[in-house]
């Protein structure tokens, strides 16, 4: 418990330091709460934007996906970065010229329609609340693990910490803190990476090398590929077909380009040219993180496989597993089911249980492990792997496991935890600010004083935080999967009206409203049906085999088609009336 207490105290001390910096820049007006009146430099804005982007899913989730499926990770990262470029080139400058701080206000004013404004507001608040729920889930991992609490208690502690951010926060203070948080995050990732590089006799500079993508250069990468093939994994193959990949890239690119909390950051710059420079700096800072991630993930995955399966690659007795295994098992982010009935923990390809998450009966097995209610059949192909999949490791757990599996010093674990908290706090704070402005300023605060508007915005942020806490407990699936679904929702509903407002202004607002509603409802219907078809065997399967995140591009096209078709209809109707 001394180790856990040290880590918790270190995380708490850094969080208090962040809060003090936030308090030093407290806002005195509503606009100071939403934007930084000091007009930060492009470098500062770019670093803060990078910190805004690096959240539980885009940092923890992507790292975990790099550990188990490098090719899919590269595809997702390509779509994300393309969307950030699109945002900096087109969307953010257009919104900046309009003078509106939030996307819903920009769309409502551009189409001169309260219907469009209110529907866009609903979608913006929904997206921000869902993203905030992911941050609460990511932060709860640290608190529940090191305080030995349940996930529910970890989420409550995370909500309490974010509540102080709402009370003390403003965009000016957040810009200062988020620059600091990016530096902390970068150092937190590099410290365990240096330990790993030394363990594999590699230079520090090799972490940023591109030879990982060319498949040459490192003996340990070859060793990892051979080891994973023995366990049934396919290291250099994607689980998606070509159509799904193309639509996924379009969906992610379009959705990231209209994420409302990232657009709000650009409204603090002095002139339009600063948006382009800020985007370049943001990509530079993100490149420093993401270029090192594949290699670090590979080294960590090799250590994890050897720690679980042993040097002989046959498994390790459950009773002889290290303390970190039991700690994360109690946290329910790691689960084991003994399919072979030999008392050994064996890590291989496949899923050890049925459904999205492991369910427990409350009883213990022969080795003292928690018994699952939904174990898989344990079927495997002996020609492809040595044993069935018995171990479940949540994707967001892989980065946390690196220092513990490698037996690094306690202070390294503490620094990594601090960096992860920094990334999540940065994203969560800007999410609450953007949603608070969208709701308070657009709907209720037109006749209020600046101080009253500020209080109302903070009240809206608190309500949003409570809703996000409930969603964090209910949402199934991994962080990166949920993140991509949310991005696809933004693409389905918001990208088409934003793009048309830039290149085809003057469309009839009813056509735009109908298109947004079509994209929004079709995407939600497909995603719900996709999930329920797995959970309910009697439900008819979908005619399309696309993943929900890829279907976002199809919903985008539906949105565009309905909008343009109705725009022609309303235009012809108006011409007929004039005649």
From TrEMBL:
Belongs to the sodium:solute symporter (SSF) (TC 2.A.21) family. It holds the Pfam family SSF. NCBIfam families: Na_symport_lg. Its main location: membrane. The chain crosses the membrane at residues 6-23, 43-68, 74-94, 115-137, 149-168, 180-198, 245-263, 275-297, 410-435, 456-476, 482-503, 510-530, 550-570. InterPro entries: Na/Glc_symporter_sf, Na/solute_symporter, Na/solute_symporter_VC_2705, Sodium:Solute_Symporter. It comes from Nitrincola iocasae. GO terms for cellular component: plasma membrane. It is found in: Membrane. This is Sodium:solute symporter. Keywords: Membrane, Symport, Transmembrane, Transmembrane helix, Transport. It is a multi-pass membrane protein.
